[in-house]
Write a structure and sequence with these properties.
The complex is a heterodimer of chains A (260) and B (353).
Chain A (H helix, E strand, L loop, with lengths): L1 H27 L10 H8 L1 H34 L5 H13 L2 H11 L12 H29 L3 H10 L4 H12 L1 H17 L2 H5 L5 H11 L2 H30 L5
Chain B lengths: L3 E10 L2 E11 L4 E5 L6 H9 L6 E6 L2 E2 L10 E4 L11 H11 L4 H14 L15 H14 L4 E5 L7 H18 L2 E6 L2 H7 L2 E6 L2 E6 L1 H6 L4 H6 L4 E9 L4 E4 L2 E4 L12 E6 L14 E12 L3 E8 L2 E8 L12 E6 L5 E3 L2
Parallel strand pairs in B: 3-8, 3-9, 6-7, 7-8
Antiparallel strand pairs in B: 1-2, 1-4, 4-5, 9-10, 11-12, 11-14, 12-13, 14-19, 15-16, 15-18, 16-17
Helix pairs in contact in B: 2-3, 2-4, 3-4
Classes of the chains: A mainly alpha (260), B alpha+beta (353).
Amino acid sequence: MKKIWSWGALVFGLLYFTLPLIGMTNFSLKMRRGEYSFDAYQKVFADPRFQETFTYSVMQALFTIIFGVLLVVPTAYWVRLKLPRLRPVIEFITLLPLVIPAIVIVFGYIRLYNTSSWLPLTGSLTGTNILLMFGYATLALPYMYRAVDTGLRTIDVATLTEAAQSLGAGWATILAKIILPNVLVAVLSGAFLTFAIVIGEFTMAALLNRPAFGPYMQLLGANRAYEPAALAVIAFGITWGCLGLIQLVSRFQKSAPPKA
Amino acid sequence: MSFLSLTSIKKSFGPVQVVHDFNMNIEKGEFVSFLGPSGCGKTTVLRMIAGFETPTSGKIVINGKDQNALKPNQRNIGMVFQAYALFPNMNVHDNVAFGLKVAGTDKSEIDARVKQMLGLIKLEHLADRFPYQLSGGQQQRVALARAIAVKPQVLLLDEPLSALDAKIRVSLREEIRQIQQQLGITTVFVTHDQEEALSISDRIVVMNAGRADQIGTPFEIYNTPSTRFVASFVGTLSIIEGKVADPAAGAVTIGNQQIALKDPISGMKGGDSISLALRPEAGSIAEGAKGDTALAGEVVSTSFLGSVIRTRLRVGGDVISFDMFNNPGVAPPVSGDNVTLRFAAKDLLVIRE
């Protein structure tokens, strides 16, 4: 009897999550009357704004990942090595983007970095792009920090550092040759999550008026019928692809040397 | 002038002083062991030589050069850790080559040196393996090869055998000593295992509560311990408490028995308390056993240790341990037996604090 209830709950949950997706996918294929087709997808892919916004967001995601890795890996490493007492404080700081809405962060940015401020980042396109990248890095911080910190926990950071130092290595060599390669799988997990966040983010890009994928999805949704559904399926595909890659690299981690 | 000299080294962590006025001179090519219980400061001294800890005061000089201001990566010191500390992302070849690459050595020279080092530790066939594919003993040998590949001026070994099983420990310590002698590399070895220290060292520093209690050759440390701590920590000395009966004659009363020491007792008068020590191998209860001194006592227990049988004998208020070779034809004493322990007066050591 207990088993029936368990199976019932599982089936209900699966239907609750999958039915809307199935409905949406079904709708996205019905652009041509009376038959299934990929017309909506063709239109989306053919739209130059799709290519422009998607390329823009992918580039932003790549820069965000690079910036995030350069910021988080040395920070998490240094905290583990030299400032273990500060770990709770750093963890709290990295969690803040989860409790402060993106709109608050971006309004803060606009007030701080507008054209009349001492650092007028919003005064130029490059400056605004950089500001948006910083914003994305902030939003991805909780995920990136946790991923890297978990990776660092699996290696004996202190002893490996001392071993490398005794062999003549400086901090840059230790980080690049010893620490980063040993937390690479964790960094990749954080990178894929960052990618998924940047691709779907709307608020920051819209308020900073940049041609990102999120605002494009919203714009298309407000004006078209079938294309938004096709775009949503594409966006889901990208996100799930990222999650799949995380699973893949996690599996790769199991066969890799786990500890020093 | 000594190759490695530690002068008036002190180290405090907050209000706790863990190393007190430590002085030591080590000659080039010498193998010195720091021996002591956990928390005695031996690893802290080693880490100060490596540069991982900064002395609160004092001076570390290697080959005439003051090391205090140098960072760990500027000291050219090889170190082997208890936890192996091989880089998990690199195979054996790359681990051994790491220090040479950092130093900017030519690739051909690196390959030749790595080959030579792997030959030295007899692991040439495992050059492509990753650390997780090696046993503990193999990993530690690779760690040793990695440390000596860069031709360090001093090799530091921080309890490198502690994580290994007993058999591997014995074979690896012999291998370490052989390689050290072959290369003539000045080595400092930290251990809490007296057998390890006694078997491979040129000299031993017995440390207690942040101080060097005694520095000497294994022979000196074992046979003539200078403090009660050294006597109790190195080997299995039995401490016998007695009273000086006649200092000029070397006479001492133990319980209600009187014995005579080899030499007169200096600096003590009749009635003073005196601590004596006796090695387990110095005494015998066998019939016809040689020895100019005898103590009667009651057997408390016997332990069969394979080649020897260790017997504990109550004499006065103390328990004395002594060993006898296992002889299948002779039954060991049993608890409650009254026996006479014979030994040479010269084997009885006077322990001064």
